[in-house]
Amino acid sequence: MAPVLRMIQHSTLSLTDLVDKVYSSLVLDLFEGLELHAKKDGSEAACKILKVISSDGTKSYEVGWIGKGNEVIDTSVVKADDLIRKKAPTSRKALKFFIRESTSETSPWTLHADLAKKYGIPTEVPVDIMNGEGLNKGRKRFVNEEDASKNLKKGQLVEPRVKYPIDDLLVKPAADDPILSNRPPPSKDFRVPVDSVGDLLMVWNFCLSFGRLLCLSPFSLSDLENAICTKESNLVLVVEIHSALLHLLIKDESEYFTILQNKKKILKVTFVKWSEYLCNFLEMISKEEFSGKVSTIRRGSYGLLETRLKLKILRELVEEAITTSSVREKIAEQIDQQGALVAARKEDARKNRGEKLNVEGVAENGRNHTDNTLDGDKPPKGQRSGEEREDLNILSSSKMFLRRHPETEMEQQSVLPSPLGKDRFYNKYWFFMCEGRLFVESENSREWGYYSTKQELDALLGSFNIKGIRERALKRQLDKLYDKISNALESRLKDVQQKMLLQGVEVRRSSRLHAQQKEDMSFLQYVNKWKQK
């Protein structure tokens, strides 16, 4: 950051030339903090330049060798010839965006004051630029042309008017800002460890997205959470999930299949022997954190494992399943179908525009040719209603996960997960229609929370500052999906209240009623209706 910001500060180059200058420097120059590779013991290893050493007109470099955890494990001094760049640190496009977002003036380029202060970049404008030398005509941000010459003579630049949106962390409060509501704190009453929520969601969504392929009927997130937290070793839901994933690996006839053949195992996971097949998988991936637990699982005590470890094992199974040919083919097929639906929608829109132009009708033999176009509010065959097309647009842009009860064809084909957006602190927001909660993931993915009521959603929307790039985009996406999200939150809230009433628990009317399903035992009734006989 610092070397790049120094090159930007008070530069009088055009944007294109400045991008070229910075890009060339990043590709050719060697500076402290640069991560690259270097020759070490006859091979190449990742490293970071810690210090540039100048002596007698030559330069050498103290580098820190980077280990698997991205930490420096050792240091050495190497020559420039021993340093190897695999690729450019960034792209010209990214640099262009960065320069625009990090500056408040373009002639000369002037960094935002907070950013300059953070990285120790001088803010005083050089004398030659203060006197107007080297400035590009037509790019000065002055109040008006009449004041421009006066200001140049005085060597004073007028404070520029910031063009929003800018990076959220650079937004400063202003007198004319609208009043923002306090952001409600998300609930964190998960049963699983908070840093394992990501694994829980990943496993649950994969099973729902590829349920037919896995021959595994849907189950709720709460059922999975409650089942994985119990100490029982042979719960039907837990066994069915593991068995379905292991069967998929067997059908793929890859490494796991070969290992079972060599062990002369029956290529079918049964309720009685499922833990043995899981042990074979853990021995195959050979990870140290699991090696000490194989004997526990083999003794039939899977339920005694820590919840965090159970979810890590399931994540490993899912990550292995994603590499199978059947899953890859399914994803490719669904992406192709999604593209075909988008193309069909565009064609429908084109036809509709043509029909609108001819809506007055063209008389032929005394008949109006609009007789067969519309039947009341029902769209013509092969076309969708406006509401359905809006659904398709929304779902296509947000790339939601496959839902348990898809409403449209596009929902059925959506398999690519992505968050709705990020707030100013880079927290990610996720929404799953069949779950009815808005999840929040911290930047480092170690903290999770959720919002479960319409009141919380409204307060959250009112807290976003749209002067920032991230919160503007996030608010736009949440506004677009507001009805769907709020309806899902309300529906889930009613379901929770109903369950609590059935369990004899008093339900207090509150704007913040959380999903108190810690005693919910519905996961015990799970039956895999899609299981192959």
UniProtKB/TrEMBL annotation:
One Gene Ontology CC term in the entry: nucleus
Entry-linked InterPro entries: DDT_dom, DDT_domain, WHIM1_dom, WHIM2_dom, WSTF_Acf1_Cbp146
Residues of the WAC domain: 1-43
Classification via PROSITE patterns: DDT (PS50827), WAC (PS51136)
Region (Disordered): 353-390
Localization in the cell: Nucleus
Keyword Nucleus attributed: yes
Compositional bias segments (type: Basic and acidic residues): 366-387
Keywords: Coiled coil, Nucleus
Short name of one Pfam family: WSD
Domain DDT, chain residue ranges per copy: 194-255
Regions that span the bilayer: none
Protein name: DDT domain-containing protein
